[in-house]
């Protein structure tokens, strides 16, 4: 068991990540979606604060600004993601759409920082695009996306931007201090949006508050802790392969819990996207 300890932890992370979609879906049943996200990440930042306070005190002004900029990109990503969850019940399909951010990131990095994508990108991206096309025609029989799918695709674009900026600007910032700043930015920006544009119910059930609490402790804090611990004990190649499983579990749970419809075209589209992600990640980690 000790030999496979890291792999087991990374596997658990993918299950936690998949469960986060449904924890959030249940929490926003009675809470405004953006307000839920703001409050969730603000409280998650406060939970991490005691562990990163000392590191925060030693950050330079440039490091704080860089971490805040990355936090703004994360806030945009989560804003679009939670809107997608609000307007869609096909969370499995949404998870595969969001996973495309891994292949969009090299394009954004090329456009902004002039880093040319690796040759494998030009093989993986067309496979993913064919998969995306099959997802689009899988429900309507024609090239058409629902509003939820469009929001998930926009979330994928913003997630790719977040990954690129995080990689570029946050390399030399202690991890816990970085997450406190980023989570705080999400809490402040989403919370501010919610107070301005959303309406909160006066009576939110205790069950919804339990879903909300679970989304903080499980989908945010526990996931981050287990992932950090798992990456220390797991080979990077193995971890990269295992992490690709998250949209797979999300799709399975969505079919089981929410009766998400599955057609042969949709299943094939998801499989092609999964193959594209695997081929790209495996090539990256071998470099």
From TrEMBL:
What is the protein name stated in its UniProt record? Answer: DMT family transporter
Where does the record place a coiled coil?
none
Location(s), subcellular: Cell membrane
EamA domain residues are: 5-136, 147-278
UniProt keyword Membrane, yes or no: yes
Query: Source species, please?
Result: Testudinibacter aquarius
InterPro entries registered for this protein in UniProt:
Diverse_Substrate_Transporter, EamA_dom, EmrE-like
Primary location group: membrane
Pfam families xrefs: EamA
Q: How does the protein's chain sit in the membrane according to the entry?
A: Multi-pass membrane protein
Q: Which residues cross the membrane?
A: 5-23, 35-52, 64-82, 94-113, 120-137, 143-164, 176-196, 208-226, 238-258, 264-282
């Amino acid at each position: 068991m000790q030999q496979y300890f890291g792999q087991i932890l990374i596997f658990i992370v993918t299950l936690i990540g998949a469960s986060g979609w449904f924890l959030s879906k249940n929490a926003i049943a009675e809470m405004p979606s953006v307000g839920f996200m703001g409050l969730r990440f603000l409280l998650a930042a406060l939970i991490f604060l005691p562990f990163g306070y000392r590191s925060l005190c030693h950050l330079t002004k440039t490091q704080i600004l860089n971490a805040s900029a990355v936090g703004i990109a994360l806030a945009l990503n989560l804003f679009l993601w939670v809107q997608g969850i609000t307007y869609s019940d096909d969370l499995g399909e949404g998870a595969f759409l969001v996973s495309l951010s891994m292949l969009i990131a090299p394009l954004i990095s090329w456009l902004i920082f002039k880093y040319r994508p690796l040759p494998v990108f030009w093989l993986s991206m067309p496979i993913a695009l064919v998969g995306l096309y099959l997802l689009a025609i899988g429900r309507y029989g024609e090239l058409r996306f629902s509003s939820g799918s469009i929001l998930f695709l926009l979330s994928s674009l913003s997630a790719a931007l977040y990954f690129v900026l995080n990689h570029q600007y946050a390399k030399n910032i202690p991890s816990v201090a970085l997450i406190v700043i980023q989570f705080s930015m999400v809490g402040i920006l989403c919370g501010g949006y919610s107070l301005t544009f959303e309406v909160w119910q006066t009576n939110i059930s205790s069950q919804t508050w339990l879903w909300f609490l679970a989304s903080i402790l499980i989908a945010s804090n526990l996931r981050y802790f287990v992932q950090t611990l798992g990456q220390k004990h797991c080979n990077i190649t193995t971890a990269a392969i295992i992490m690709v499983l998250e949209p797979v579990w999300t799709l399975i749970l969505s079919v089981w819990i929410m009766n998400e419809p599955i057609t042969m075209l949709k299943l094939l589209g998801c499989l092609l996207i999964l193959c594209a992600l695997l081929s790209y990640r495996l090539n990256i980690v071998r470099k």
